[in-house]
Amino acid sequence: MPRHTTAGDAARRTQRARSARTVLPLLAVAAVAWIGSALHGDEPPATSGQAATGPGGYRLFVGIVGNPSVPDISWSDEELTQIKQLGVNMVQLSIAWGGKPAGEVLNLEDLDAAQREKFAFRIAQAKKHGLKTIAHFGIPRMVNFNPVRPACILDQAVQAKYRDLLKEFMVSFPDVDDVLVYTFDQQAWLCSEFGPCPRCSGIPLDARLPGFLNMLNETMQSVRPNTRLWWKPWELSKGQVVAILDEVKPANFGLVLNPSSSNEVYPFNDRSFKSDLGVRRLVQMAEERGIPVLGEFDHTFYKPLYLFEDFFPRLIYEQMIGWKEMKGIVGVKEYYGFAPTTFSVNAAMLKAWMRSPDASLDALLAEIAAPYGAKAAPLVIQAWEYVARSLEAYPWDTTYLIGPMGLDRPWDGGHDWEPVTIPNGTWDTPIWKANRKGNFMLTEEHKAHPWVFEDAGLRLEDSASLGFKAVDLYDQAIAASGDRADDLRIQREIVFKTSRSLRAKGIHFLLTLAAQDARMVQHDDKQFAIVTTRIERLLERDVANQGNRPEVVAKLAEFRRDPRAWIAANLAPRTYETKASPDWSKWIPRQD
Q1: What span, in angstroms and rounded, lies between the C-alpha atoms of 548 and 566?
Q2: 53-57, 331-335, 540-544: least confident range
Q3: Of the ranges 13-17, 73-77, 206-210, which one carries the lowest mean pLDDT score?
Q4: Res 489 pLDDT > 80
Q5: Containing H/E element for 181?
Q6: How far is 296 from 322, CA to CA, in rounded Å?
Q7: Which of 195, 111, 183, 197 is closest to 154 using CA atoms?
Q8: In the predicted model, is pLDDT for residue 33 greater than 60?
Q9: pLDDT at 313
Q10: Fewest C-beta in 10 Å: which of 80, 128, 167, 229?
């Protein structure tokens, strides 16, 4: 999967009209929120990030120590100092990622004696460095992971369990400032109104989840008034979040949002921030109800999970501006985590922007490029721009499963000689069955039109060509650079490998289509000659991209000798064959 009310209240409420809210209740809500925030030791929860005086003009900048790919999470003084220097003023107490890297706490149930000792140390370290703390949990944890069996939030035993667990946590760790909850993912799950649960069947989520969230928040307040429960509405549809946000109690409640209401947290603006009408509406609703919002961003593109690495500072600047210009955002939260041992160009831009959020992009780029020397700096800035363009040009909307589309680290510029395929994925969650189907072309399709494959192949090549322009600029910058030449060589090599992989994948797509075109016209000598010329050029590009590897050199020679035999033996579809797998959705766990 990506990333990642009580029973008496289960009847669906009649949705209140927003226009019916009067000024007086809004003022009352704002006053309660202000008083609570003052008691909590914070500034009043201004609904505009611009009104605050913290890093970047925000009240909060939340960071994770380490990340799922680099769980270097010693919480040492050096590590926290480097993270704080970025502008971070609140740290998450665990990586809290679905795969539980390094055995990190993901659910309240994980807090055994060893983890409690770890939390106590981290809280003390945070206080030592003047950092606030936030604990992150998936609630309610699934009864069974595969196949999924949720823990029902209308089950009074489940409600009592989480009252007790959360209360005990708040008592045991009195210095934790806030709690962040995912109710989907993070090994948490919610019953479907269309599923077998005897309590939830026929009852929509917006009639169940607000009461559960209110119960969690009330439990926190009963132990330590004016802490805040933050909620990330992961895996829920836009409509569900709207309905839930309209019903949840706003006092001491906060919302954490992706920059896109139907995509992952990616480091670029593709119908994101205020241009995503779903995000815009949720921020508007939160502001109307006095609910503060944290906006998430990614500063590295999940480094080092994929081939793309963090040499695209313009996109960091644009993410920061994207959240900054939305009224109602009181802070930002980095999504994947900070591993200081891997800090590079993007971290430098983030640090510079948080210090000077009103500075222009050109001024900040000049600042972070200056260490490369006066001659190299302009070339380095151009190289970074082409890396950013390469990232933006990639066909993100084809499928969620981007790794096999040229971004997994094992890709080395090669490919096989079977027809190319596009893996696609979906999960049985509201957003995947609704909004994300409008974001990704393929989610659960077994077949796709050749134009989908052509589109992907052409865009992969565009992304690769932009990356190779960056490589050329890196070569010029290295020749002009002084002390930082080794750093530039590392950047150059990573961008080269990424571009080579993307070009290889694009060639595989386009060769697959061209070979089938050739089969279609092989009895028309004129048309066949046109198509075989196209194939030959693609193979020549393949040879160059793979550095004259013997296998691909041999493929080109074989094609030139006998094109008809070549298309019969390479990239040839087995049109008579389909593959069946069990319909796993037929296994539905009991929910007594």
Answers
A1: 19
A2: 53-57
A3: 13-17
A4: yes
A5: strand 178-182
A6: 11
A7: 197
A8: no
A9: 98
A10: 128
Structure tokens at 182: 């995912």
72 band by pLDDT with thresholds 50, 70 and 90: low
Q: What is the pLDDT of residues 291-332, one digit of tens each?
A: 999 999 999 999 989 999 999 999 999 999 999 999 999 999
* C-alpha to C-alpha distance for 172 and 92, rounded to whole angstroms: 17
Please say if the pLDDT value at position 13 is more than 50: no
What is the rounded CA–CA span in Å between residue 521 and residue 397?
32
User: The pTM is what?
Assistant: 0.89
Which sign does the torsion angle of CA 279, 281, 286, 287 carry?
Answer: positive
Nearest to 68 by CA among 130, 119, 6, 2: 2
Peptide bond into 25 cis (omega under 30): no
Q: Which CATH fold would you assign to the domain 7-359?
A: TIM Barrel (3.20.20)
Q: How far apart are CA 162 and CA 229, in angstroms?
A: 14
DSSP state of 438: G
Inter-residue contact 162 to 140 (CB < 8 Å): yes
β-pairing, 60-64 with 90-92? parallel
Where are the alpha helices (H) located in 224-360, listed in sequence order? 238-245, 277-288, 313-324, 345-355
Token pair of 142, please?
A: 């699934």
* Number of other residues whose CB lies within 10 A of the CB of residue 401: 16
Kindly report the three-state secondary structure assignment for every residue of 368-431.
HHHHHCCCCHHHHHHHHHHHHHHHHHCCCCCCCCCHHHCCECCCCCCCCCCCCCCCCCCCCCHH
What are the sequence ranges of the domains in the chain? 7-359, 382-569
